[in-house]
Design a protein that fits this description.
Low-confidence stretches: none
Number of helices: 0
Strand content: over 45%
Structural class: mainly beta
Order of helices and strands: EEEEEEEEEEEEEEE
Shape: elongated
Length: 208
């Protein structure tokens, strides 16, 4: 089972079905290995998983000895939970025509899948190495996690774009991150003929 990381952690809602349906739910216990979280299905069944761990195992079973603890020999079901995280690092401001470095980092214990970048080519171009740009919306890979992909971002035309990075696991789970980039046009004029006094340059091609 793959889940996406969020800034507040990963929230997992546990549920169970069993026969007979009217069995005392407080006798059906659960716990999550790798955390101190535990309880029964007659009470709270929501767990918030915190990083840096990227894999957890949720277990459920019947409290046969009545001690209120899910012992190893009482476990009847287990579910592995892998936490996926996508981190997109790019500069907030890029000068028109310049190329700057960035990074796409993806974590998730041994997960495999493809990654996608979505952006507007009229504003920016992104590559792992120019001159070949990464096609927006095109799946790249497959890759195994964790992995880090160096990026180059080129400012094409002044404006703002939101770059979105998506990791799609082999089972179809999608996790994403986004970053806003402002492409800035810098225009420098010099009063080369020194005829403007204290006023600004004429902004003509000759003084551009």
């Amino acid at each position: 089972l793959y889940l996406c990381h969020t800034p507040g952690g990963v929230q997992v809602n546990l549920s169970a079905s069993f026969l007979p349906a009217d069995y005392d739910r407080s006798k059906i216990l659960w716990k999550v290995d790798g955390t101190v979280a535990s309880g029964n299905f007659g009470g709270v069944t929501t767990v918030t998983l915190q990083p840096p761990a990227t894999r957890f195992t949720a277990k459920a079973g019947i409290d046969c000895n009545g001690n209120g603890t899910l012992d190893a020999n009482e476990v009847r079901r287990e579910v592995d939970v892998v936490v996926l995280n996508v981190i997109l690092t790019v500069p907030r401001y890029i000068a028109e025509g310049s190329i700057v470095g960035g990074e796409l980092a993806m974590t998730g214990d041994s997960a495999t899948g493809t990654w996608i970048l979505i952006y507007v080519p009229s504003k920016v171009l992104i590559a792992t190495a120019f001159p070949v740009a990464i096609q927006p919306g095109f799946p790249n890979g497959p890759v195994g996690l964790p992995t880090t992909i160096p990026l180059q971002i080129k400012g094409v035309n002044a404006g703002t774009d939101v770059i979105v990075a998506i990791f799609r696991s082999d089972d179809g789970t999608e996790c994403s991150a986004s970053a806003t980039v402002h492409v800035i046009k810098i225009d420098l004029d010099v009063d080369s003929d020194n005829t403007n006094g204290y006023r600004g340059p004429n902004e003509t091609d000759a003084e551009d």
